[in-house]
Amino acid sequence: MNRYWVQRLGFLLLVLVTLIVVVPILLVIGIIVVGGIEAISWEFLTGMPRDGMKAGGIFPAIIGTLLLILGTALAAIPVGVAGAIYLAEYAPDNWFTRAIRLAIINLAGIPSVVYGLFGLGLFVLFLQFGTSILAGSLTLAIMTLPIIISASEEALLVVPTEFRTVSFSLGGTRWQGIRNVVLPQALPGIITGVILGLLRAAGETAPILFTVAAFYLPRLPQSPFDQTMALPYHLYVISTQVPGMPMEIQYGTALVLLALVLSMSVVATIIRSYYRRRRQW
Amino acid sequence: MKNGQPRLRWTEFTVEAIIRVLGFSSIGFVALIFLFLLREGVPTFFEIPLNNLFSTRWYPTFDLFGTLPLILGSILVTVTAIVIAVPLGVATAVFVREMAPGWAREILKPMIEVLAGIPSVVLGFFGMTLLAPFIRETLGTPTGLTAFTGALILAYMALPTIISVAEDALDAVPKSYRDAGLAMGATQWQTIWRVVVPAARSGIVTAVMLGMGRAIGETMAVMMVTGNAARMPLTLDSLFRPVRTMTATVAAEMGEVAQGSTHYHALFGIGIILFVLTFVINLAAASSIFKKQRRGGLR
User: Fold this and answer.
1) In a designed cystine with A51, which of A55, A227, B30, B186 is the match (CB 3.0 to 4.6 A)?
2) Could B126 and A32 be called an inter-chain contact, meaning their C-beta atoms sit closer than 8 Å?
C-alpha cells in the first residue's frame, strides 16, 4: 500500500475518532433539552416544590444556586485577582514563587468531595458557621480560586511590558501603573476567567453536600447562615433518593442546570473573542 | 515625588502588602485543607486496627472498615477510563492541532469546552437514565450500573483536560521540526507521528496525568452510575459488575454518620488518601510542566 493511501486512511481514522468524542456531547445536550423542555413553565421556574417535590417548581433551588454563585464570587474574586496580580507583577523568580504555583496546581487537582470534607471540618464545625450558605460559598470559593488565578494571571501577562514602562516614565508608581493601565487592559480576560470559575462552582455537587445543601426546604433562605436547596444537589436528590419521581421533573431540573451553566460558558466565550478581536496590540 | 504625596506612598504600601499576602494565600489554603483532613482523619488510625483498615470488607455498621475494595474500585474505574480516554484524547488533539481546517477547529474547540462545563451530576443523571439501561441490554449484564459505565462517563469527563493539555504540547513543537520532516520527503502523516508527537511526548504524559487526577477525584457521576457495591474487584468480570470508589463512599455516607464517630473519622481518612494520591499525581504532572524544554528553531 502506497504511503499516501496510509495518510488518507489515517486522516479518515482521526476524523472518526473526533466524531466519537464530539457526537456524544451533542447527544447528551440534545436528549436533556428534548426531555426537559416540556417541563419548563413559569410555574416550574418560579414555584415552590409540592407533594414531596413531585409537583410544583424548583424556585428555591434556582435561588439557592444563584446565592451560592454570588457568595462564591464575593469571596473568590478579590483573593483570586490579587493572587494573580502578585504572580504576574510582583513575584520574583525564586523557590517560593514556584511553591505558590505548585500550590495552585494542587488546589486545582484536589477532588471536589475532599473540598466538601474540608468545608465541613473548617467552616461548618470548627468555625461553627453550621450548614449554611456562608460555609458553602467559602468552600466553593477556595475550589474556584485556582481557575480564577490562572486565567487572570494569563490575562495580565499578555499585556505588553511597554504599557508598564510608559506608566513608569510618566511618573506613576508601580501600583498606579497596574491599576490604571494594566488592569483595564486585562479586564476582559479576568472576567472570562471569573465566569469560568463560577460556572464550575454552580455545577458542583460534592462540595455542597455537607456544607450547605438542604434536601427539601420549600422556602427561601433568610440569611447567610441559612441552609438552602441548590440545583445540582436537587437533581441528585430527585434522581436517586426519591422513588417515583416523574421523569419530566428530573429532565426539567437537569435542563435548567445545564442551561444556566452553558449560558455562562457562552457569555465567557463571547467576551473573550470580542475583546481579542478589538485589541489593538 | 520624594518630598510630596505621602498619602500616595501609604496607599502604595498598603495595597502592595495586601496583594503580597493574598498572593501567598494559595499555599495557606493547601496547608489548611491538609491540616483539617488530618485533624478529623488521623484518629482513624488509632481507633481502627490496621488489619481491619486494610481488610477486604467495608461494612461500617459492623465496624468493618476495610478500605481495599474502595481503593481497588477507584483504581479499576480510573485506569479503565484512562485507557479509553487517552487514545481518543490524543487523536482528537492531533486532529484539531495538526490537520483540521480552520472552520472545523472553530467548531471543535468550543464543543470540547462545553463538555468540560457540563456538571458532573448532569452526566451522572444521563448515565443513570440512559447509558446504564443501554449497557445492560447490549452487554446482557444483570445491571447497567457497573464499573464500565462509570469508566465510560469518567473518560468523557477527563477528555477536555487531556485534549487541551495535549494540544498545548503539540503547539509548543517548533514549526522547523515539521518543516524538516516534510523536507526529508515524509508525508504529513509520517511527520506527525514520527516527529511531532514524539517531540511533544512529555507534554502528552502531563496531559494523561492531569486527566487521571481528574478521573480519580470525580465523585457525583461515578456515585450515580457504578452501583456502589463495596466488593473486591478481583475477577475478570469485575469491570461489568457494580463497584464502589473512595469518592462515592465519602459522598454517600458522610451525610448519615454521627460526628466524631469512628465511621466519621474513617471517611476523613479516605479523604486523606484521596488528597495524598491527587497531590502526588499533580506533583508528577507539574514537574514536567516546570521542566521547560528549550528547543531551538523557528516558531
Assistant:
1) A55
2) yes
What does the alpha-carbon distance between residue B258 and residue B238 come to, in Å, rounded to a whole number? 32
Half-sphere exposure of B205 (CA within 13 A, CB side): 14
Q: What is the mean pLDDT of each run of 10 residues along chain B (299 residues)?
A: 61 89 92 94 88 85 88 94 95 92 88 90 94 90 89 94 92 91 90 92 90 92 89 83 92 88 92 94 78 47
- The secondary structure of chain B in percent helix, strand, coil, rounded to multiples of 5, reads 75, 0, 20
Kindly identify which residue of chain A lies nearest to residue B87, measuring between CA atoms. A17
Global pTM value: 0.91
SS3 string of chain A? CCHHHHHHHHHHHHHHHHHHHHHHHHHHHHHHHHHHHCCCCHHHHHCCEECCCCEECCHHHHHHHHHHHHHHHHHHHHHHHHHHHHHHHHCCCCHHHHHHHHHHHHHHHCCHHHHHHHHHHHHHHHCCCCCCHHHHHHHHHHHHHHHHHHHHHHHHHCCCHHHHHHHHHCCCCHHHHHHHHHHHHHHHHHHHHHHHHHHHHHHCCHHHHCCCECCCCCCCCCCCCCCECCHHHHHHHHHHCCCCCCHHHHHHHHHHHHHHHHHHHHHHHHHHHHHHHHCCC
pLDDT band of A219, cuts 50, 70, 90? confident
Put simply, the chain B residues between 56 and 85 with a CB less than 8 A from any chain A CB are: none
Residues A82-125: pLDDT tens digits? 999 999 989 888 899 999 999 999 999 999 999 999 999 999 99
Q: Which of A28, A97, A142, A239 to mutate to test the interface with B (most CBs of B within 10 A)?
A: A28
CA distances (Å), origin A5, targets B178, B190, B197? 20, 12, 21
Q: Give the closest of A24, A175, A232 to B15, CB-based.
A: A175
SS3 B100: coil
pLDDT of residue B229: 84
Residue type (1 letter), B265: H
**Average pLDDT value over all residues in chain A:** 90
B275 to chain A: which residues are within 8 Å by CB? Answer: 110-111, 114
Whether chain A has a CB inside 8 Å of the CB on B197: the answer is no
Pick from A28, A91, A240: CB nearest B118: A28
Q: Is the ipTM of this complex over 0.85?
A: yes
Whether A25 sits inside 8 A of B224 (CB atoms) is no
Nearest Cα neighbor of B273 from B62, B29, B72, B63 is B72
Contact A87 B23 (CB under 8 A): yes
How distant is the Cα of A14 from the closest Cα of chain B, in angstroms? Answer: 6
d(CA B273, CA B71): 9
Q: Phi then psi for B18, rounded to 5 degrees? A: -60, -45
Grid coordinates representing A211 are: 456544607
